[in-house]
Design goal:
Keywords: ATP-binding, Nucleotide-binding, Transport. With about 300 residues, this protein is α/β, with parallel strands linked by helices. It is built from eleven helices and 13 strands. Strand 1 and strand 2 form a beta hairpin. The chain is globular.
């Protein structure tokens, strides 16, 4: 059993009469990438701020690395790297100077660490360019570099791929996977790009209006729904007739957009294509759909209503 890095028991946060968090119970373990999912205002950032000591809970308890006392938790936070909302950067300084400031703040004396984290986030070639001239994606990269400075055993990342282009998103994913798999770093990460989160996380926690509503593993997500064959065609009635009468397939559905779907295990794809081509059916597209984190989430919260 892997070591518990963070644990919350009945954690609540109230602002006046409004609950930002209600009775949160969750555990994050060593080497785990935990995808934290919820709408804006659901409570994700509030929980991350509590972990970082920026907000104090109204009730309930939490522990970091097994420590729950106020002084011990403050000590444990030195083993955590944070990127919560927009990173705090000095716009009149360049990347190396910003990292130098955080090295002094964290008591890091190895100046070589600055070059290591800049290389890790692909900012080594920025030179003396001031942060004021950085794009949003570059600022996010620098914020991640700051979070990595102290060689954290636990990373808390709020929307770390915000503003990144596809290449940058892939690079960040590779960095986080390597940290988790090779160094056993635990990672709590939120993102509105659920397709990317599905590629990265090993476990998912869903929060809605301050309440923790469900938790599933990546394998449970994949088992939650069968993959389907999806057919786009301008000859919908003809295809439906072939599927039902000639191929004797029963579990067929048509989506609102007119796409025909059927379970992938009901027929061999090669056989299906052969029969459709034999009848000279004009196809606009055929693909396999796998269980989707975004669909799972929307279904879980009632279609977002």
């Amino acid at each position: 059993m892997s070591t518990t890095i963070f644990e919350a028991n009945g954690l609540c946060k109230k602002y006046g009469s409004a609950h930002a968090l209600q009775d949160i119970h969750m555990t994050i373990r060593q080497g785990e990438i935990y995808g934290f999912i919820g709408e804006n205002g659901a409570g994700k950032t509030t929980l991350m701020r509590i972990i970082g000591g920026l907000v104090h809970p109204s009730s309930g308890q939490f522990s970091l690395f097994g420590q729950s006392g106020a002084r011990q938790v403050n000590q444990a936070r030195r083993r955590v790297g944070f990127l919560i909302e927009m990173p705090s950067l000095y716009s009149h300084l360049d990347a190396e100077e910003n990292l130098g400031f955080y090295c002094r703040m964290y008591g890091i004396k190895q100046r070589s660490r600055i070059g290591e984290v800049l290389q890790a986030v692909s900012l080594s070639d920025t030179g003396r360019k001031r942060v004021s001239g950085y794009s949003l994606g570059m600022r996010q990269r620098l914020g991640l570099a700051i979070a990595l400075l102290n060689r954290p055993e636990f990373l808390v990342l709020d929307e770390p791929i915000n503003g990144l282009d596809p290449t940058g998103i892939m690079e960040v994913r590779q960095i986080l996977e390597q940290l988790a798999q090779e160094q056993g770093v635990a990672i709590l990460i939120s993102s509105h790009i659920l397709s990317e989160l599905q590629l990265l996380a090993s476990r998912f926690g869903f929060i809605h209006r301050g309440r923790f509503i469900q938790e599933i593993s990546a394998s449970e997500l994949m088992a939650s729904a069968k993959s389907k064959i999806c057919i786009q065609t301008g000859s919908k009635d003809t295809v439906l007739q072939i599927l039902r009468e000639q191929l004797s397939l029963a579990d067929i559905a048509v989506t609102e957009s007119g796409e025909i779907t059927l379970p992938s295990d009901s027929i061999d794809m090669e056989q299906l294509m052969s029969v459709l081509l034999e009848h000279r059916v004009r196809l606009e597209g055929v693909h396999l759909s796998a269980p989707n984190l975004e669909h799972y989430y929307m279904k879980l919260i009632g279609g977002g209503k």
